[in-house]
Amino acid sequence: MVKAKLIVSIVIRLMLSAVFLMAGTVKLTDKLDENTHEMMLKGFDTYAEMFKIDTLGLNPDQFRVFVGTLEVISVVLLWFVPLAGSFLQVVVMIGAAFIHIMASEFNELALVSVLLILASVVFILHIPVEEAPAEPAEKKTQ
């Protein structure tokens, strides 16, 4: 059973890594895909205005870079500290779901939901479980 959990975890972490690394990188630079980066710039302008991010002392670009950095860091953590990496991805996806719902971008919710579920599965798989104490051997009757 332990081997199966490890294989499932590795496969899911590979998928999450690809998506989060791509999404984070596109938020941070236009070198990967200029059109998608431009779309992110416009989207974060909208989100920052909608949620009054400036009250936190952030401008839209800082907010975008913050989210992108969290996504890239989560990928690194996912491989070295899976519990922390998957937790960070769950938090980012809950935030993404909230933002997309508030912005009425319901078409984005399918991917966000799948990523949230996958990150949650990895989180659950890596929660340390205490083994039940072994049953004491029956005492021999004398």
Automatic annotation (TrEMBL):
Q: Name one Pfam family in it.
A: DoxX_2
Q: Where in the cell is it found?
A: Membrane
Q: Which segments cross the bilayer?
A: 7-26, 76-102, 109-129
User: Which residues fall in a coiled-coil region?
Assistant: none
Q: Please provide the record's keywords in A-Z order.
A: Membrane, Transmembrane, Transmembrane helix
Instruction: Provide the primary localization.
Output: membrane
For this record, an example GO cellular component is: membrane
Q: Which family does it belong to?
A: Belongs to the DoxX family.
Protein known as: DoxX family protein
This chain's source organism reads: Rhodosorus marinus
